[in-house]
Design goal:
13% of the residues lie in helices and 50% in strands. It has 3 helices and 13 strands; from the N terminus they run ααββββββββαβββββ. Its main location: membrane.
């Protein structure tokens, strides 16, 4: 079993590269004009989904499911646009909040194992070329903690810079880098496990029906890092609900156990953002 897990860890980055190379071959589609973007911003509510909102359940890969290795994981995430391109350089001010919870629902008392809180404040700017939207930039200050105190407290702060672009008619790439600060008291070696950035790739395999998204981080120490892959299927034409299968492999899935490597496969329901480029 250990050999299988080791092989998975060694090949996870190659899998991401393979997916990227295949899907990047799609033809670049029609881009959205600046006028259309302005119309969307005027008519779209400023409060909307930020990251995926989901509730999923599953167990450790390669082990028989038990109450000890199975759980429920859910994420609530939203953003609120505070301005409409009214700041210098036509930038936007926005707030974000993400809450990630691990719920031991299969234990007798169904306790929450951990809840991670991630608020942020950012400036965003949409990028245009020849009057067409090609991507977006964001500069944020973020905090992440598990809300505990004493020896179990885990938290860190970071300034992040992200670039999101549509690299084909069916795929989006986001590159995000961060500079941590005020984090060494609770978890001085956390950068060994989360590194200084991450890459997210979203591939629309079938329009309005089937999506694949992959997020990877590389820690600064050896093979430490993680990869999260989601395959999401939309069963109905209307609405924005997906049946999603999520695979998490690596370190730092939760803050309190960031030094522990996990390999989890979970299935459930997800609600995805309507767009990945707008604020």
């Amino acid at each position: 079993m250990q050999k299988i897990k080791s092989r998975i860890r060694k090949n996870m980055w190659g899998l991401c590269l393979f997916i990227l190379v295949i899907s990047i071959n799609t033809v670049y589609g029609q881009q959205i004009s600046r006028d259309s973007v302005n119309r969307i911003l005027r008519t779209t509510p400023p409060f909307t989904i930020y990251k995926d909102n989901y509730i999923i359940t599953g167990s450790t890969i390669g082990e028989k499911p038990t109450s000890s290795n199975s759980d429920v994981k859910y994420q609530i995430s939203f953003k609120h646009r505070l301005t409409n391109a009214s700041l210098p350089l036509n930038s936007y001010l926005f707030l974000t909040y993400t809450q990630l919870a691990f719920w031991d629902i299969y234990h007798w008392s169904s306790p929450f194992n951990e809840i991670n809180f991630n608020p942020g404040l950012g400036l965003g700017k949409l990028l245009f070329k020849d009057g067409k939207l090609i991507g977006s930039l964001a500069l944020q200050v973020e905090h992440e903690s598990n809300g505990w105190d004493s020896t179990m407290s885990r938290s860190w702060n970071y300034a992040s810079f992200s670039y999101t672009t549509a690299i084909s008619s069916k795929s989006i790439l986001q590159l995000k880098a961060w500079v941590p600060f005020f984090y060494k008291q609770d978890n001085p070696d956390i950068i060994d496990y989360v590194g200084y950035g991450q890459a997210t790739y979203i591939w629309e395999i079938k329009k309005d029906k089937l999506l694949l998204d992959v997020t990877g981080r590389k820690g600064t120490s050896g093979w430490k890092g993680n990869i999260q892959t989601q395959l999401s299927f939309k069963p109905f034409k209307s609405g924005n609900a997906f049946v999603t299968l999520q695979w998490y492999q690596g370190y730092a899935e939760s803050l309190s156990q960031y030094q522990q490597s996990t390999s989890m496969l979970r299935l459930g329901i997800a609600i995805k953002p309507p767009t990945y480029l707008f604020y």
